[in-house]
């Protein structure tokens, strides 16, 4: 079945550096992907909508210069956390809607990426 | 359960009993709802969905009830098992979009 793959699953970076997280749709194309952030014991917070071939749409309060999103192809979206700080440490999850009449309402989630900024 | 400060509300259930997890959603224009299960350190897993033109849908051991009048969603798990222990989220989708907004979540603990 449709799967969304995220990489890396865990990353530790130094404060001030940038880190890239990839989200790939396997066996299906995704013109739209979504990036969420989740703090411990909290719900998923939608950060932005990634659009293939155009600019991402950011939710209110999310810094677009801080969280760069690039949807380079129909199967890949990347989230780059620039000049990372310890408060950016979080669990980042991407998702992509399914396609076709049988799964058009379904949204598939990646396994998430743990970012720790030290 | 009600939110208790910074922690997720927790529902503790004896193994074999039925569980009911509740969710209040915010947007009366939402047309589609999903329940997800999330285990520690993992991404959300789809459990069951329901469209806004329905008020009940059943799956294997799970039932989702939708009350649009009060914007309330519930997930019923029959014969709760230890493997059901996880955090459960409801998510609503605005009509015409693929944008999902998640509820606050409930931690389900199954007691042996």
In short:
Chain A is mainly beta and 118 residues long. Chain A is built from no helices and eleven strands. In chain B, the strands form two sheets. In chain B, strands 1, 3, 4, 8, 9 and 10 form a six-stranded mixed sheet that branches. A four-stranded antiparallel sheet of chain B has the order 2-7-6-5, with no helix packed on it.
Can you put this structure into words, describing what you see?
The complex is a heterodimer of chains A (118) and B (112). Chain A has no helices and eleven strands. With 118 residues, chain A is an all-beta fold. In chain A, the strands form two sheets. In chain A, strands 2, 4, 5, 6, 9, 10 and 11 form a seven-stranded mixed sheet that branches. A four-stranded antiparallel sheet of chain A has the order 1-3-8-7, with no helix packed on it. By secondary structure, chain B is mainly beta. Chain B is 0% helix and 54% strand. In chain B, strands 1, 3, 4, 8, 9 and 10 form a six-stranded mixed sheet that branches. Chain B is globular, with a radius of gyration of 14 Å. The A-B interface holds A 6, 32, 34, 36, 41-46, 49, 91, 93, 95, 97, 105-112, 114 and B 6-8, 32, 34, 36, 41-46, 49, 51, 89, 98-105.
**Structural class determined from secondary elements of chain B:** mainly beta
Q: How many E-type strands of chain A?
A: 11
Strand content of chain B: over 45%
**Major beta sheet summary of chain A:** 7 strands, mixed
Structural class of chain A: mainly beta
Most extensive chain interface and residues per partner: A-B, 24 and 23 residues
Number of strands of chain B: 10
Helix content of chain A: under 10%
Bulk shape of chain A: globular
> What's the overall average pLDDT of chain A, rounded?
91
The main β sheet of chain B shows up as: 6 strands, mixed
Distance between the termini of chain A: 37 Å
Radius of gyration of chain A: 14 Å
Q: What's the overall geometry of chain B?
A: globular
- Tell me the number of helical segments of chain A per DSSP (H or I, 4 or more residues long): 0
The proportion of strand residues of chain A reads over 45%
Low-confidence stretches of chain B: 1-6
- Helix percent band of chain B: under 10%
Oligomer: heterodimer
* Rg value of chain B: 14 Å
Give the termini separation of chain B: 21 Å
């Amino acid at each position: 079945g449709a799967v969304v793959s995220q990489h890396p699953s865990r990353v530790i970076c130094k404060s001030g550096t940038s880190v890239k997280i990839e989200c790939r749709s396997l066996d299906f194309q995704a013109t739209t992907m979504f990036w969420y952030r989740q703090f411990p014991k909290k719900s998923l917070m939608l950060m932005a909508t990634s659009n293939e071939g155009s600019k991402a749409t950011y939710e209110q309060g999310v810094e677009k210069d801080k969280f760069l999103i690039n949807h380079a192809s129909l199967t890949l979206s990347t989230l780059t956390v620039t000049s990372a700080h310890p408060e950016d440490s979080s669990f980042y999850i991407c998702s992509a809607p399914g396609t076709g009449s049988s799964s058009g309402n379904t949204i598939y989630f990646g396994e998430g990426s743990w970012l720790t900024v030290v | 359960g009600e939110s208790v400060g910074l922690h997720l509300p927790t529902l503790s259930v004896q193994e074999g009993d039925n569980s009911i997890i509740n969710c209040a959603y915010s947007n009366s224009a939402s047309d589609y709802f999903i329940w997800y299960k999330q285990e520690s350190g993992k991404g959300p897993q789809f459990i069951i969905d329901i469209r806004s033109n329905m008020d009940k849908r059943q799956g294997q051991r799970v039932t989702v009830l939708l009350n649009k009048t009060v914007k309330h969603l519930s997930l019923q798990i029959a014969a709760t098992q230890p493997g059901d222990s996880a955090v459960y989220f409801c998510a609503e989708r605005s009509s015409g979009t693929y944008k999902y907004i998640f509820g606050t979540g409930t931690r389900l603990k199954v007691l042996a």
